[in-house]
Amino acid sequence: MRVLVQKYGGTSVANLECMNKVREKVLISLDKGYKVIVVLSAMSGETNRLIDLARQWSHRPDPCEMDVLLATGEQTSVSLFAMLLKDCGVKARSLLGFQVPIQTDKSFGKARILDIDNERIEEILEKYDVLVVAGFQGCDCSQRITTLGRGGSDTSAVALAAAINAETCEIYTDVDGVYTTDPNICPQARKIKKIAYDEMLEMASMGAKVLQIRSVEFAKKYNVPIHVRSTFSDGPGTLVVQEDKSMEAAMVSGVAYDKDQARITLVGVYDEPGVAAKIFEPISRANIVVDMIVQNPSREGKTDMTFTVPKGNVEDTLNILKKAQADIGAQAILHDVDVAKVTVIGVGMRNHSGVAAIAFSALKNENINIMIISTSEIKISCLIEEKYTELAIRTLHEAFGLDQEAPRKEC
Amino acid sequence: MRVLVQKYGGTSVANLECMNKVREKVLISLDKGYKVIVVLSAMSGETNRLIDLARQWSHRPDPCEMDVLLATGEQTSVSLFAMLLKDCGVKARSLLGFQVPIQTDKSFGKARILDIDNERIEEILEKYDVLVVAGFQGCDCSQRITTLGRGGSDTSAVALAAAINAETCEIYTDVDGVYTTDPNICPQARKIKKIAYDEMLEMASMGAKVLQIRSVEFAKKYNVPIHVRSTFSDGPGTLVVQEDKSMEAAMVSGVAYDKDQARITLVGVYDEPGVAAKIFEPISRANIVVDMIVQNPSREGKTDMTFTVPKGNVEDTLNILKKAQADIGAQAILHDVDVAKVTVIGVGMRNHSGVAAIAFSALKNENINIMIISTSEIKISCLIEEKYTELAIRTLHEAFGLDQEAPRKEC
Q1: What is the pTM of this model?
Q2: ipTM for the complex shown
C-alpha cells in the first residue's frame, strides 16, 4: 500500500472552487495508485472568526473550551471535502482528531502530539482510498479536544506521515515553495529546490512562514520528506529533507529577516557570577523569549549587557529590569524598538570559511551598521537599524549569489 | 447528589444576551443545591446555515459527513456557554456526544439513542457542578458522529435525565408551556399545567411543535417528568407526566391541528382481500406516511377508499396509484389538497361518553363538513376543508370549555 499525506492550508480550502482544485489533486494521486491521507486546515478566516466570537463571550476564554470551539473549523472543512469526494464515487471518509486518534498532552491551545495509532489508521485505510483528517486538533488521554497552535495542521500532517511511513508529506499552500528570501522585498529571490531540515528551521523561525517550526522538527526527528508546493499550480515546489552532500556546494541557501525585535541594553552592570541569571531568570519566568545576547568585555568590574526581545514585550521587560536594577547595579537601562534582524542561512557554512566576512563587508559597503552579531554552525544573524532591513536583504542576497541558478539541481 | 437536566433550545442560546439569561437560570439552580446537566441546541439559524452550506457542496450531501458538519453547531454552543460559566467561577465543562458518550445506532441524520453510560456521567459530575452537553448528537459503536434529527436535543435531554435518574428534565424554550391550542388562532387558549405523556404525544404529532415526539416517547418509557417552560420568564410552565386521576376530570385537554394534509380517494376499487395491501404497500415503500384511512361499505363488489398523505407527497402518491390503477380496478383517482385535520385530545375521553357527539355537533353548528373521522382512545380527528381550520379550532375549544379554568390545579 503506497500512501501519500497531503496537507492543504486555509486558503486552499477557502471555498467550493478551491476545494474542487484540491479534489483534482487528490484524484490525480489516486490515479497514480496511491491511497491519500488528506489533512485540512479550517477555511481561511474561520479560526480568526471563532477567536473573535469567543472574545465576545469572554475576555479570557477558558483554554479547554476554546479548543472545543476552534476544532469546529477543521470539522467543517473535512466534512465538506469528504462530501465532495464521495459525490464523485471516491471511497472516502472524514476523521476528526479524536477519531484517528491523534493523542496529545493536555496543553490546551498548544498541545504536543504524543502518539498516533498507526495500526488503526492502516486498518481504516484498508476500507477507504482517501482519509480526510482534521488538522490542528487532537485529544488528550481523557478524550478532551486539544489544538496544536497556529499552523498546527502542518504538524498533524507530518506526524501522520511519520506514523504510517508515508512516502512523502506534501504541504500544499498558496505559495509554490520556499524562496531564497522574501520575493516581495527582493524580486531576484528564487525558489529553493531542496533544503535541509536545519536550514528550514532557521528560515521558519526567522519569519519565513511557509511551515510551522514544530512540523519541521517532527519531520527531522522521523526523517519524513516534506514537499512544499502550491495548490494552484502544478510545478514542483521545495523539498525539505535530510542534509546531503549536494547542499554543501552553496555557502548560503537563503536570507531571512525578523522585524519583530527590540534591543535592550543594561549599562554598567556588575561583572560577576550570577548577574546574567539575575537578569534573564525573571524575564524567562514572564514567558518572554530573549533572542540575541551580547556582553561587552568588562572594564573596572562593570560591563554592558545587550539583548533582544519581541517588540510587544519591551514594556514588560523594562518593568522587570527596573525592579532588578539596584541588585544588578545597572547605571542605565536603554531600549530601541527600531531594529531588525537579518540572517544568512546555509549548511554549506560548515565547510566554507569567510561567510561572515562576506556578509559584514556587504553590509559595510551600504553603510549599514551592525549592532549585534549572533552565529550558529549554519547561520549568521545581524541586528541592524530597522529602516535598512530591505536594503540589507537585497545586499546579502546578491553578495552570496543567491540570484544565480543554484548548484542544487538533482531533485 | 440532586441533579436537574435543563435543555435550552436554539432561540435560548441565539446570542450572548440570551446565553446570559440561561446562565442566570443555571446559577439559580446551583444556589438551590442542584448539580445541573445543561443540554444545548445549536444557536438559532445555525443548523439551517450548515445545511445550506452542505447543499452548495453537494446536491445530495453524504449523510455521515452531514452529521459531522451539523455537529459543529452544538459544539459551538456548548463551548461558548461553558466559557461563560467558567468566567463566573462555576466548575463547568462541555461534553460532546462522543465524550458522554451518547451511544446511538448508525442511522445518520435520524439516529436513535441506544445507551448512555450513567456511571461515567456520575463520575464526571463528582468533579463538576455543571456539565454542558451538546444536544442532538451522539456517536455510533465505531465512534462516528451521528445526529438525532430535528428537535433531537429534547431527546438528548430526556435520555440523560433517564440515565442518571434526574429529578426533572426541564425543557426551556421561547414559549412558556403547552397550550390548549394555538394562541395565535384562539386567543382564549390557556397554558396547560399538567398533561399526560400520551396526550402530549398526540399534541406533538398534530403539529404542536413544543417537544420532539421521540423525547416524549422516551420520557414515557422511563417515566421522566418533563417541565416545559420559558427561558425568558420565571413562571411555571407545563408538566408532562404519567397520567393520573386528576387528568380524567376534563374530557378534553387540547385541540391540535395539521394543515399539511391532502386527501386522496380511489373510486370503485375491488372490494376483495388484498386490495388495501396493493394500495398501501408501494406507498409505504416510497417512505410516504399515510395518516387517516377510511373505506366505504361495499356496493356491488366495489368500494371507495379515502386516505390522507402530507401535501408534499401528493404527486408521488398519484404516480404510484396510477401504476396500480388497473390492478385494483379503480375507476377514478381523486385528490384534494385544500384540507386540514383538527383533533381534540384528552385522556378523560376514556371515562366520558359523548365527546364525539359534542365535537360533531359543534362543527355542524358552524356548517363545517367532516370528510373523514378517525379516532383513538384519547383523540378524535376530523378532516375538514382547510379554509375552516381556524373556525373549527375556536369552535371546538369553546365547545369543550377549554377557555375556562381547568380542574387540573394541583401542580
Answers
A1: 0.86
A2: 0.85
